[in-house]
Amino acid sequence: MSDDIQCSVEYNGRILHGKTDQPLIDFLAEQGIDLPHVCYHRALGPIQTCDVCWIEHNGEMVRGCTLRTANGMKLVSEAPHIKAAQEEGLDRILAKHELYCSVCEHNTGDCTLHNTVADINPAIQRYKYQRKPYSKDHSNPFYTYDPDQCILCGRCIEACQNVEVNETLSIDFTLDHPRVLWDGGTTIEGSSCVSCGHCVTVCPCNALLEKTMQPDAGPLTSMPERIKRPLIDAVKTLENTLGAPPITAVSVMDMHWRQPEIKRAKTVCTYCGVGCSKPVSQFTGKPSDA
Ligand code: SF4
Ligand code: SF4
Ligand code: SF4
Ligand code: FES
Predict the structure, then answer these.
(1) Sorting pLDDT into bands at 50, 70 and 90, what band is 290?
(2) Do residues 266 and 280 make contact, with C-beta atoms less than 8 angstroms apart?
(3) Does Kinase count among this protein's keywords (predicted)?
(4) In the chain, N or C: fewer CB atoms in 10 Å?
């Protein structure tokens, strides 16, 4: 019923009209405005783990993903202290995630993390990326998990525990290096995972990745690791002198180059009777409408 009630919201001095009692991030998206966010997902609601979506609401700095629209709200996202808080949140995430977007299979246009980095466009990465002492899990036929790229946002946990109610996934924050666990610490293939794929579709980066998108998802992604690794290291060194924005500009260009060769479709999960629909992507290696 509340969908029909309209409201006016002041956003950076502009008056916006739309539905009342709607998640603010969705309301803004419908107006063509992106409030930077990483852990919020329309289907999962506010998880509040990324600390990127800061906004000023009626004079108080809050996480934007927690807000729902109401008539007369006053919002500011452009103030320097808000921008600084958003950037701090993003910087902390990047200490858990190595950015190598132009050689990454996930730079498809659907990478929430890449798109947020491009949006905030930080001048330099301030916190050093910390590698985690785990190897990648390839054991499932459909998807992989790379702990080194996992930002611990919790989206996959929410999808598996509370939407699919399969209760396979958890994160053990008591570990020295927290990571996502399948049934408390087994391989994906040895776990109760039913391969519904929901966790993969909501992961905001390449920590969970469909095997159909690996390894040649873009012009540079299939190069052997012995070439890729020194290239990534060289670009990181370059970032210290050039700053991050020119490197981000290249990865945004690369994302656009790939678009014609990515086929997108919706699939329906047949695991239970609910029949949730999920997006799937496949790299075709040729313009997908050819
Ligand atoms: S997952 Fe996204 S942000 Fe991370 S390297 Fe790949 S494209 Fe870049
Ligand atoms: S694929 Fe489905 S069942 Fe398996 S871990 Fe992901 S959400 Fe859970
Ligand atoms: S695997 Fe993906 S969705 Fe799950 S916590 Fe890590 S980054 Fe988030
Ligand atoms: S989107 Fe609000 S804390 Fe992550």
Answers:
(1) very low
(2) yes
(3) no
(4) N
